């Protein structure tokens, strides 16, 4: 595990070097995506996904993120969600909200935490967009995901969203 951590840290650093040729970045990305079965711990994913997968896909076609999210593999799902941090940092929350919506039904706490974390990060930069997402989805969000997403809200705001409860309606009752 410590070797994998070190190897991924070096790969992220090498990918981030501005003078690295595009061919080298592509090679790092392909090596990473070809070996996700070994990126099988939350800290390995969180260390590497934004700096390699997110950085590589920003501004490009992102079908890989959606395939990973739909894969049923916990680590690929987490890679998909956490990779969006690279997008968030550049002001693009689109994939974060879209992937979080696709993962609303997950029972896996590590995916709920990752989605909530990314929603919270997106909300730090665009609070109205997060509130709009919550107005539609808070009632169907797993509690862990919701708690992480609203962690930076005031106590009254957190209580408001936590009261939304689970419901099968399309829109959350009482949320605008």
Describe the structure.
- With 176 residues, the chain is an all-alpha fold.
- Helix content is 67%, strand content 0%.
- It contains ten helices and no strands.
- The chain has helices at 2-16, 22-33, 42-57, 63-70, 74-88, 94-102, 109-125, 127-137, 143-149, 155-162.
- The protein is elongated, with a radius of gyration of 17 Å.
- The termini are far apart.
- The model has no long low-confidence stretch (mean pLDDT 93).
Shape: elongated
What is the CA-based Rg, rounded?
17 Å
- Whole-Å distance between the termini? 46 Å
The helix count comes to 10
What fraction, in percent, of the residue positions are helical?
Answer: 55-70%
- Sequence of secondary-structure elements: HHHHHHHHHH
Mean pLDDT equals 93
What is the beta-strand fraction?
under 5%
Largest sheet: none
Secondary structure class reads mainly alpha
Q: How would you summarize this macromolecular structure in one to three sentences?
A:
The chain has 176 residues and is mostly helical. It is 67% helix and 0% strand.
Question: Secondary-structure map with pairings?
Answer:
Blueprint (H helix, E strand, L loop, with lengths): L1 H15 L5 H12 L8 H16 L5 H8 L3 H15 L5 H9 L6 H17 L1 H11 L5 H7 L5 H8 L14
Helix pairs in contact: 1-3, 3-5, 4-5, 5-6, 5-7, 6-7, 7-8, 7-9
